Amino acid sequence: MIKTILLRTIIVGIVSFLFGCCLAYSTRALYFNWLYNLVLYSTLNTINYPPIRNATNFDPIINDIESHLPVNHPYRDNDRVTWVHEGSHGIASQLRNQFGKPGFYLLENRAIILDRELLTTIGEVAKLVPVSLRGEVYQLYLVQSRRWWEHEPSYIFDEFVAYTNGSEARRQLCISSRGETIRYMLEFIVYSTSVIRSDKNTNLQTRLFIMWQIERAIKIYKQSGMSSNYLIQLRISPDANEFRQYMREYFGAKWTKQMLGF
Q1: Which contiguous run of DSSP H or E holds residue 46?
Q2: What secondary structure does DSSP assign to 71-116, as a single string?
Q3: CB under 8 Å, gap of 24 or more: what pairs does 3-12 form?
Q4: How would you classify the pairing of strands 46-48 and 103-105?
Q5: pLDDT at 126
Q6: Using an 8 Å Cβ cutoff, are 234 and 190 in contact?
Q7: Residue 229, exposed/middle/buried by CB under 10 A (0-12, 13-18, 19+)?
Q8: Among 127, 169, 189, 206, which has the minimal tally of Cβ within 10 Å of its Cβ?
């Protein structure tokens, strides 16, 4: 059975490649970029995480969060961006309790479960963040949070997902304020990469997850119409030269150039 699936995958890959070669030059690059992403993320093992109750009284993205949490949960907030952010934390907590491993809710009934907790500490992660990239929430999440989360560095991923879900809520709900949630989301590109860098045994699944998360964050950022001094510093700061090189080597030079501009 496995050999049959592998053979079919190879055949489909060859046919797809040959099809791409037949396209006009102007569309060939777009096609191969789409094909590359399709192959890359086909191994990202998200799971279907269905609702536990019906929720229809709110905006769709709020209903999404609400339907995955029990009635009278403590994560509701008058601010809808905060509601989605905190609700994402609540669902992540449920996933960890259910599977015994770090898990994160990616909206639309999708979740991902990591193979294990990462083998580092938030204190070690914090040291790897270049000084020029220690942004507005560095002190809160990589210094103060160590009191509670020092030995659960996947907490940084949890915040990355929560800020990204919150930023998606801001986009979908056409909220003009709360721009800081976009800024903080972008900081977690660096902080999450620092977690991976500190964890010497990070596997393919974790790498693909963070790449997928970075792509999602950059897409939301571009759709926001905002400008980011933080991303500019990531591209040009002298003290981040080694960090940028690590990202090129780990994520791939072409992908890093396409996503982050260096």
Answers
A1: strand 46-48
A2: TT-TT--SSHHHHHHHHHHHHHHHHHHHHSS-EEE-STTEEEE-SS
A3: none
A4: unpaired
A5: 98
A6: yes
A7: exposed
A8: 127
The position carrying tokens 């998200």 is 46
- Go through 132-144 and write b for each residue having 16 or more CB atoms within 10 A of its CB, e for each that does not: ebbbebbeebbee
How many residues appear in the chain? 262
Q: How far is CA 200 from the centre of its chain?
A: 20
Distance CA 167, CA 81 (A): 7
Q: Give the relative orientation of helices 180-198 and 154-172 as an angle to the nearest 10 degrees.
A: 150
Cα(45)–Cα(151) distance, integer angstroms = 25
178: left (phi over 0), alpha (psi -120 to 50) or beta: left
Which residues, including other chains, have CB under 8 Å from residue 46's CB and lie 6 or more apart? 106, 110, 111, 112
Burial status of residue 74 (CB atoms within 10 A of its CB: 0-12, 13-18, 19 or more): exposed
Q: How many CB atoms lie within 10 A of CB 182?
A: 23
pLDDT along the chain (262 residues), means of 10: 41 52 59 55 84 97 98 97 98 98 98 95 98 98 98 98 98 98 98 95 87 97 97 98 97 96 98
